[in-house]
Amino acid sequence: MVATRTSPYDYIQPAARRYRTPWTSLNARSRGGLPAGKLVVLTGMPGAGKTGVAVQLARHLAIGGARVTVLATDEGADALAVRLGQLAGAERAALEKRDARALDLAMLYTPATLSLLADVSIERATVDVDVLIVDSIQTARSEATTTRGKRAQVEAVVRALLGAKGRGVLVIATSEMGRQEYRNLAKDPSLASAKGSGDIEYQADMVLALVTRDGGRTVNVTIPKSRIGDDKTGWTWTRDPARASFVEHQPTSPTPAHTTTWRDDARLTLWTLAITGAVLGAAALGK
Ligand SMILES: Nc1ncnc2c1ncn2[C@@H]1O[C@H](COP(=O)(O)OP(=O)(O)O)[C@@H](O)[C@H]1O
Ligand SMILES: [Mg+2]
C-alpha cells in the first residue's frame, strides 16, 4: 500500500451554502443562515405555527433563488397554497374562492423556483431541490417500506430525509409533538423528547420548538438542540394573520432611526401649511 501524504487541512470542507431566513434572530442563531446539508426540525403542538413558519421560510428561500420543494401531506396542498398566496399579497377569502384576480396576483408574486407537491413519496420530493420542506414527518409517505405500521413509515421517511441531507439538501421538517412531550418541554425547554417521531429530534441538526402565547397572537421559540450555532437563546414572533406570516418581535431594541415620530409628522404638517399658504398667497397676488 502506498501512503499518500495529506495535509491536515485537506479535511476541512468548503463552507456550506447558507440560506438566510426572514428572521434576524434565526440568522444569528445559525451563524448567518441555515446551511445546506442540514436537517432542521420545527416541533410543537397542533396550532403552534409549524406549517405557517415552514411556508414562510419556503417562499423566502425561493425568492433568494433556491429551488425549494414543499411536500404538503398534513394540511394538504390547497391550504398551503392559500397561505403562499397570502404571503404574496392576496387575500385569504379571495384565494379560497379561487378569485381570478387573487390567483393572478399570487402567481405574479410567487417565485418560479418554488414547487408545492402533495401526492408524491418523500423519495420523489427530494429530486432536484436545494431546499426540501416537509409538512409533516408523521404524514409523509416513503416508498422504501412495505410495512403498514406508522412507526415504520416515519422511520423510513426520516431515512429518506437523512439521505437528502447527505446529498447537500437543506431539509426543514415539521414534527408534531404529543401532549406528554409538550409537558416535558414546558418543564424543561432544553429537552425535545422524540417518541412517535422516528427519533427525528436526535437526527436533527437544529430543533426549533414552537409554543403559542396570548391566545395565538404570539409564538415563543426555544432551541432545545443546535449543532448549527452556539447561541440557543429563544425569541418571540408576532403573528400577522392577514399575511399568514410571523414577524420578529424586538422589545428591547431602541427605536430605529428611520421610523417616523410625531415630531416628523408635525414638521411635515408645518411644511405643508407653509407651502399651501405660499401658493395661495401667490395666487391672490396674481389676481
Ligand atoms: N391561511 C391562513 N392564514 C392565516 N392564519 C391561518 C391560516 N391557516 C391557519 N391559520 C392559523 O394558524 C394557526 C395554526 O398555525 P399552523 O401553522 O397551522 O400550526 P401547526 O402547523 O403547528 O399546527 C391557527 O391559529 C390558524 O387559525
Ligand atoms: Mg401544521
Structure description:
With 287 residues, this protein is of the alpha/beta class. It has one domain (23-248): P-loop containing nucleotide triphosphate hydrolases (Rossmann fold, 3-Layer(aba) Sandwich). It is 36% helix and 20% strand. It has ten helices and eleven strands. The chain has a nine-stranded mixed beta sheet with strand order 5-4-6-7-3-8-9-10-11, sandwiched between helices. The chain has a two-stranded antiparallel sheet with strand order 1-2. A hairpin with a 4-residue loop joins strand 8 (206-213) and strand 9. Helix 3 (77-87) packs across helix 5 (100-108). The longest helix is centred in the C-terminal third of the chain and has 25 residues, at 262-286. The protein is globular and about 100 Å long. Adenosine-5'-diphosphate (ADP) binds at residues 44, 46-52, 82-83, 86, 92, 216, 241, 244.
Summarize the structure.
The protein is of the alpha/beta class. The chain has helices at residues 24-29, 50-63, 77-87, 92-96, 100-108, 122-125, 150-166, 179-187, 200-203, 262-286; strands spanning 18-19, 34-35, 39-44, 68-72, 114-117, 131-135, 170-176, 206-213, 218-226, 235-240, 245-248.
